[in-house]
Amino acid sequence: MSSEDAFHKFLASNKQWRQHTSSNNPDLFPSCAKGQAPPLLWLGCSDSRVPETTVCNAQPGDIFVHRNIANIISPHDMSSQSVIYFAINALKVKHIVVCGHTSCGGVNAALGQGKVGGTMDAWLMPLREIRAGLQAKGIFDGKDDKDKALTLVGANVQRGVDVVRKNPEVVKAMEERGVTVHGCIYDVGTGELMELDTGEGSEDLKQRMASFKVQ
Q1: What is the DSSP track for 141-205?
Q2: Is the pTM of this model over 0.85?
Q3: What are phi and psi for residue 40, nearest 5 degrees?
Q4: Which residues share a beta bridge with 123?
């Protein structure tokens, strides 16, 4: 199928979906037209195999979304930080999910030695830094390529969770209204969404509040 054929197929599919949805849930589109109040912000990868609304069996309006290559969350990325600010202050979300996935092309590129090209090599630098840290600690020792990739996926999610939790707006929202930050991995081969243990100890919490809480 050509790209042009695919585009028109999607347009036709939208018509079918709209008619089906309107018939089965007639209040959905009028409700969406009035505004949004999603309880959850999803920070994920741009990969076409991980559509958050689909994999969570959700509806339009349920999930506020930011996606980029390899779900890299950086305090210096104004796009993701703007989304977090809006989600916390305007939408008043209760949950923030940082989600990585198996078979991630960005992760595989960061594990390799080849030049990706364009802006991608600079974008993937945080992943390479995580990789270097894992290698230095011997965490990759004895692992095959698949296990290394999964380990890096998990470490990248944990890094993203840490970055989000240090965001001053998130710090305030966690303290004042119990906003929760979660880390997940989606298995593209099984469709399973798995929550990681990204909890922090009392000393970590105390240090984070002392360092990143602003008045």
Answers
A1: TT--HHHHHHHHHHHHHHHHHHHHHHSHHHHHHHHHH--EEEEEEE-TTT--EEE------HHHH
A2: yes
A3: -140, 140
A4: none
Scanning the structure block, which residue is given the tokens 């798995």?
194
Instruction: Give 91-102 pLDDT, tens digit per residue.
Output: 999 999 999 999
Residues making up the chain, counted from first to last: 215
Sign of CA dihedral 87, 89, 90, 92: positive
Query: Is residue 133 within 8 Å of residue 190, measured between CB atoms?
Result: no
Quickly count: other Cβ atoms within 10 Å of residue 153's Cβ: 25
Q: How far is CA 81 from the centre of its chain?
A: 13
Q: In what order do the strands lie in the sheet with 193-195?
A: 63-68, 40-45, 95-101, 180-186, 193-195
- Classified as helix, coil or strand, 95 is strand
> Look-up: residue for tokens 């999910």?
97
Rg (CA), the chain: 19
